[in-house]
Amino acid sequence: MAVVDSICYFSVDKFVKKHLKLSQKVHSDALPALNIIDQTQDHEAKVTPSHLVDEWLPRAYIAIGNLKTFLLGRFHGVSGKYLQEYLDELSYRFNHRFIEK
To answer: What is the pTM of this model?
Structure first.
């Protein structure tokens, strides 16, 4: 997860080049700014009715739901200044959820 200033061709291209391997399979919604992913990835975009989003992008919606719960349950008054740190902590917790302490 990473904070971006806007969802535009430039920020999507920068994110993809930094975080994804070439020719990696990518599913997304049909937001036009995401069309640039086609240049380097095996990209499949689909307009999905709201009742089917869990089938098309299940991990994305799990991550979004976890983020909402994490921020609302733990922090009150989240600002953009520290948003990347919140995302980093959530990602760490999610990736280590099955490791016993």
So the answer is: 0.70
Q: Closest Cα to residue 34, out of 23, 45, 24?
A: 45
Contact 1, 63 (CB under 8 A): yes
From the list 48, 68, 43, the residue with the least C-alpha distance to 58 is 48
Over the stretch 42-80, which tens digit does the pLDDT of each residue have?
Answer: 999 988 888 887 788 888 888 888 888 888 887 777 888
In this structure, how many other beta carbons lie within 10 angstroms of the beta carbon of residue 29? 13
Do the beta carbons of residue 44 and residue 24 sit within 8 Å? no
- Asked if 28 contacts 47 with a C-beta cutoff of 8 angstroms, the reply is no
Within its chain, how far is the Cα of 5 from the centroid?
14
pLDDT of residue 101: 64
Determine the Cα–Cα distance for residues 13 and 15; give it in Å rounded to an integer.
Answer: 5
Output DSSP code: residue 17: H
Looking from the CA of 24 toward its CB, the CA atoms found within 13 Å total 11
